[in-house]
Amino acid sequence: MRSSESDVATGFAAAEIRYGTGRPKIGAILLEMGALNESQVAAVLARQAQSNGELFGQAAISLGFTNLERVRRALEQQQRFQVLPAGDGSVDPLVVAAFNPSDPLSREARSLRAMISASRRADGSLPKSIALVGVDAAAETAILSANLGVACAQAGYRTLLVDTNIDQPVQHNLFRLSNRSGVSSMLSVDGDHRGMIQPSAVRGLSLITAGPAVPNTTELFDSKRLFVRLRLLSEGFDVLLIDASQSNGSMISFDGADAALIAVRQDRSSLDDMKKLACSISSSGTIILGSIIID
Q1: Candidate CATH numbers 3.60.150.10, 3.40.1160.10, 3.40.50.300, 3.30.310.260; the one for domain 96-293
Q2: Could you tell me which residues come within 8 angstroms of residue 236 by beta carbon, excluding any fewer than 6 positions away?
Q3: Between the CA of residue 170 and those of 174, 211, 276, what are the distances in Å?
Q4: CA-CA distance, 274 to 270, in Å (whole number)?
Q5: Tens-place pLDDT, residues 266-288
Q6: Global pTM?
Q7: DSSP letters of 139-196?
Q8: pLDDT of res. 4
């Protein structure tokens, strides 16, 4: 799911509106970077004055004064918003939020981030631990979890993403990390597990991968142990995201998660399965923030 280059330019322009107040203007940053000279800045401003709402970055690209990558870098500097260069091999291209903020999936991830930020627990506090569960949408939910993790980190939240899919781990591949130890190790062995937290190439985003396969996966999750241990490990983080995409909610006890998001596939996921999952999650006291329909 990719946008055209014109859509990308439009997305960056929209971001100038959202984030420009109180921050350096894109034109000033491009000038400081050497990407534009003063006469080009003046020409862009003149074009803006004659246009119907065209934003600076988009106008500069349209005039041929700069390119998308330079506008991307200027936006990153303006927002303190990290965007990896296209082709960077440290993150899988499926984690599109790390590369292209205007892609539809990136926008969806930011919408979910906003939903989380706007929600409150019963005591009025923000939810910190959020589980993402798929109903017949395992692959899509895992990718959505990765993109949501990036979106949270880009917004300045110290984010810990945890892959609980021990039988079919995904996140270590998406973020090019080792899977020698992780959740399976954490649940199998007592001790200090802080060494299992791995930083990713996305600033502010760390992961605990699923870890090596074990024969007793169901038994490992048949307790509150997961969230008890994650609560200790996440003390230095603002957001804890749990990718439970493979479980359909059948293994993990959600007692301990503040909130959950349920991903379903349009015309594929069973409504009965979704209702059962929602009931199971709610019975543990976990808030259901909403559902995501994947077409």
Answers
A1: 3.40.50.300
A2: 158
A3: 7, 11, 25
A4: 6
A5: 877 778 888 888 888 888 788 99
A6: 0.73
A7: HHHHHHHHHHHHHHHHTT--EEEEE--SSS--HHHHTT---SSSHHHHHHS-S--GGG
A8: 31
